[in-house]
Amino acid sequence: MNRREFLQCAAILVSGASASQLGVALTQEQQVYLAAAPDYNQGATRLLNDAQRKTIAAMCEIVIPRTDTPGAIDAGVPRFIELMATDWLNDEERTIFLAGLADLEASVAADYGSSFDELDAAQQLALMEDLEAKASESSWYDFANTRRDFVSDAPFICQLKELTIWGFFTSEKGGTQVLRYNAMPMYFDGDVPLSPDQSSWLTRLE
Amino acid sequence: MKNSIIESTNFDFDAVVVGSGISGGWAAKELTEKGLKVLVLERGKPLQHGSGYLGEHAPDWKLPYQGKRPRDLYAQEYKWSSKSGSMNEANRQFWNNDKDNPYADDEGKPFMWARADVVGGRSVLWGRQSYRFSAQDFRANADDGHGIPWPVDYEEIAPWYGYVEKFIGVNGRNEGLPQLPDGELQKPMPWHALEKTIESRLKKKAPDVTLTNARTAILTEDLPGRSACHYCGPCPRGCSTGSYFSSLSSTLPAAKATGNLTIRANSLVEKLEYDPETGKIAKVHVIDTVSGERQTYSARIFFLCASTVGSTQILMNSTSERFPNGLANSSGVLGHYMMDHTIGESGMGLFLDNMDSYFHGNRPTGLYIPRFRNVDGQDPDADFVRGYGFQTYTLRMDWSTGFNAKGFGASLKEDLRKPGPWIFVLSGFTECLPYEDNRMYLSNNKVDRFGIPQVAFDFEFKDNEYKLREDARKQADRLLKAAGAVVPVPAGRKNMSMPGESIHEMGTARMGDDPKQAVLNKYNQAHDVPNLFVTDGSFMTSASCVNPSLTYMAFTARACEYAVKQMAEGHI
After folding, report:
1. Residues of chain B with C-beta less than 8 angstroms from the C-beta of A184
2. Taking the model in full, what pTM does it have?
């Protein structure tokens, strides 16, 4: 038995019994309540038209594509972005978002005679890299500028990336199949070996 | 000796306790266990332990905006509550709506007053770190002449610290330091590998400091009705296993078990009514915040535990011919000598040690570096009095701290999936001196929706507080370098918190032996009114640099014992 296994066994012996008596009964109550609560990204959407939705979906899949694990579309990110743009972004941010989306649609129509989602992935990536290059002076890219609510004057491409990444990693698929999630870890061990294939935990301390 | 307790039948209750938070819960427990019929009045909404914790264990995808805080709503209705980082959509129902229950924040000077609005009060939301004041803390005012001397010394309160520590359950490590007295602690929570690396380096390169567990009121061993922590992480959502101490999980159930407890939620106390014939409080005036109905309750003794600002507001609003400037305020110090700790990052460091070591479970607390400045008399290089401690946080960078990277696609996804470098944060908690002109008062022209004058603040940090923070910034840089940070990031020079931000407001009805200079005597009893006790943070004569709640609990328990003895002996 190695140290980690020993600690796991010890922790189960010490805390498992008691917490199961008190904790699990209540956890079942919570499980029922939580199961009944709909996921946020199941909410009704009404901000975008179908063409805009296709563009947003294609863009977030470029940010977080499906690989051997789910991608942004699998995780419901397009709907998350529309919901956030509806009433989480403020008026100024929503204006930037909708104008950026309209600009992209117009330039794709002019340059390619098609819509963004009809381009191949390499063309889509090139267009988004171009948007990122033009936005690169934004404070959004500043080192460690992540502990804040939002950068209100961030360009469209930055908004799109931020909402995609947040929406993805806090979704059920992203949080459990790409990151790792354990609502009831039952013990703390501060020295567990980390292998390269292992992901971060989803939970952040509040 | 008269058996006065039996003679309280002329009263609605033996005791009224205003507030159900950390102090009120303790008063309820102690008084009911001594046989008193107790009414607890709570301004906030009802909250059931367990089933009321609607956000507990909710994963991000079940929360509105998948956990992002709705900024417009918070700006409009939770202007001050939302300044606390621990408020979010998983626990918003516990917090005060600042639009419904405002204070006069456009008067005086800017001050953050963050409140709960539920049964259990801020004990549901608190930071849970629990330290004893030291002998030096209780001597500090007498030694350096700031404020007035404490009427209590460490030896006198030490047994009460032990009494409350054992009941609430505090985990940590005794270090035998005079500036951080040992306690009755449960076994400490384990450390991250990086923290052990840092400890061994500090032992060699900075032997003047001690790195220890943050002593935290979270169980590592079961107590009756409460389980050891299951390490889910976000405590301020409520804990249905009662693993962290709150009055909901601990003191109120104990009080309820006696059969002597009545709790009224939605019950805002307007004032206490003074009877000039008996020289005592006769009644409490209560407003039902839902129906608007007004009611009074009589009792033999009254405990104000409504939080520092709440209790002081009640006293200030309880004027009479005898007390035109606020109840029990013949000294004139009520509302003055207000204190608050200064908090915030003094520095952080990026570490590349122990990169192949990760963790299981979310340890809901950090480590602690107890005060090391001005401990054996005044340090020759210190241009300030008193000191500070560092609360530390150990974080692993991840997608949430690195999402603003350039790039797209599978490689971005792969980078964001994996843990990044370690971050170790030193957060300075510095002492604040008591100054007469740091005060709260009642607004002349603003009232709340029930007609009660709103509170305003006239409070600022001064020279000593700024010097302490600057020293903490320099020392944090030294310690982070000694600890082996590859990139030490010192705080900016203006690393001063906003007044009120530590949510440790205290001192507005201070205790002292001299009735001309203090509202309360050494047993938290009003010098002017024998059946009035105030046991929340308002009694604090000085602030120390440690988190104060444990001290409120110890003094509350002691005051209850004294009050019941006084009743039994027929004095009140």
Report:
1. 57, 230, 232
2. 0.94
